[in-house]
Amino acid sequence: MHGFQSLISDCELDDLAYVGPYFTWWDNQGDNPIGKKLDSAVVNGAWGQFFPNSFASFETCGVSDHCRCSVSLSHQVHTARRLFKFFTYLGDSPKFHSTVQQVWDAFEPLYHSRSALFLYHKKLKKLKFSLRSLNQEKYGDIPKRTREAFDALCDCQNEALTSPSAESFAAVSEAID
Question: Domain total for the chain?
Fold first, then answer.
């Protein structure tokens, strides 16, 4: 450990400011859990000059016993559009082909284009809303339920790392199951 600390000092590295739970690792033992701050983000002086508002964010991540770390270069929050994901199990639905056919046949562009690729793109954009509805109707929105279960697991892990106790680690084990 002294060698590592000496290396950090010789390279003039400093811990980057961070947000998140105090502990970044735990041993997943139910009887006598142990949590430690093992992970950090280190930067040099030049980094601080180029990215003065940067910070590390530690987040519980579900399957690992370490928190994941992401580094933000500024405090600006970027919002992203929700991407469309096609789930292969939708193709097995009895309504899949009729849904696609109905949307495909009903599409009439507002103006005529010579580009077949443009028309194909527009039809696909119209189709995604019907496929999202089919996913929710037939399968109960599995991605949403999966995300909710993952978020609940991360909340339990965050609680265990913030306020370690036998109960909080038991809740993590239950959420993992």
Answer: 2
Residue 26, phi-psi category: left (phi > 0), alpha (psi -120 to 50), beta (remainder)? beta
Domain range holding 115? 88-140
Please report, in angstroms and rounded to a whole number, the separation of the first and last CA atoms in the chain: 36
Write b or e for each residue in 28-43: b if 16 or more Cβ atoms lie within 10 A of its Cβ, otherwise e.
Answer: eeeeebebeeebebeb
pTM: 0.45
pLDDT digit string, tens, across residues 159-177: 888 888 888 888 888 888 7
C-beta of residue 90 within 8 angstroms of C-beta of residue 96: yes
Is residue 60 a contact partner of residue 21, using CB atoms and an 8 Å limit? yes
